[in-house]
Amino acid sequence: PLIHLTPTHLDHLNARFETMEPQAILQMCTLLFPNLYQTTAFGLTGLVILDMLHKLATPTSTSTSPAIPQQPELIFLDTLHHFPETYALVDRIKKHYSSAAPLTIHTYKPQSCSTAADFAALHNSPDLWTTDPERYDFLAKVEPQQRAERDLDVAAVITGRRRSQGGERGAMPVLEVVPADPADTNKGSSSMMIKINPLARWTFEQVKTYIDENGVPYNELLDKGYRSVGDWHSTSPVKEGEGEREGRWKGQGKTECGIHNKKSRYAMFLAEMARKEAEKA
Predict the structure, then answer these.
(1) Pairing between strand 175-179 and 36-39?
(2) Where do the domains of the chain lie?
(3) Sign of torsion over alpha carbons 166, 230, 261, 2
(4) Tell me: the pLDDT tens digits for 186-242?
(5) How far apart are alpha carbons 122 and 246 in whole angstroms?
(6) pTM of the model
(7) CA geometry: angle at 269 spanning 276 and 244, to 5°?
(8) What is the DSSP letter of 69?
(9) Which CATH fold would you assign to the domain 7-280?
(10) Continuous segment of H or E residues that includes residue 108
(11) Average pLDDT score, the chain
């Protein structure tokens, strides 16, 4: 399904969302937008959103009708290079929420790969993230995300990005409209997708407090100096006083992998298409 928001409507919704609690934003968006999914790598903010949505979709002792019809399904990008602790967390999350309706998690891996060894062999590189980091990001993250969006006919996604994470996220609105996957021939070139950032205004401290107070399982690496966890090869612990995401791609001068950067996504798509055409020639 296609969602169309005029600039005026988008501004109106963002103005309202700036004064609303995250749960109210989530409740409203589940009613407004069809084919809504949550994208997550099971970081702290994503876990808060997951828990909020689970509670909204679960009847309470005072109400037999849940606040939302059902919890949006999840999209998890398995780059094949996550930490063992991250994979263990996914299993713990499934068990934690199994008493009510079980979570539906759509896991997407790099094309034609099941293991890290498959990935290295297919792309003829044991460390593509070092030799060609932009191509690694496209193959391990951007392409699987685009494939998920096509397969599931995603019209809107909920993300765990926050302004306090800094970088390109510093001035991020709660509601964004971004170009859809350029490779999706079923949608026009001007098709757009909705991105919802319900915790955009929250700080790391607010997120951690919610996790602790609600007993939400989290990545054990966060107790070992990490604050933002991605792939094992590009994630480091942070020192006291360093920013939350300064342990990601340390020394590389980047703050995003391409998934949330629409210009980067399209540039990587074009570069990969050009490379494939060159191989055919």
Answers:
(1) unpaired
(2) 7-280
(3) negative
(4) 655 557 899 999 999 999 999 999 999 999 999 999 999 888 899 999 988 887 766
(5) 31
(6) 0.85
(7) 130
(8) S
(9) Rossmann fold (3.40.50)
(10) strand 105-108
(11) 86
State residue 242's pLDDT score: 67
Residue 117: pLDDT over 60 = yes
DSSP secondary structure string, 5-57? --HHHHHHHHHHHTTS-HHHHHHHHHHH-SSEEEE----HHHHHHHHHHHHHT
The amino acid sitting at 130 is T
Which residues form the catalytic set?
A: 257
> What are the counts of helices (DSSP H) followed by strands (DSSP E) for the chain?
10, 6
Tokens (6 digits) for 210: 């919610």
The number of beta carbons lying within 10 Å of the beta carbon of residue 127 is 11
What are the tokens at 148? 């998920």
Give 21-41 pLDDT, tens digit per residue. Answer: 999 999 999 999 999 999 999
DSSP string, 72-88: PPEEEE--S-B-HHHHH
**Is the pLDDT at 263 greater than 80, yes or no?**
no
Q: How many CB atoms within 10 Å of residue 229? A: 23
| Assigned token pair, 191 | 């098709």
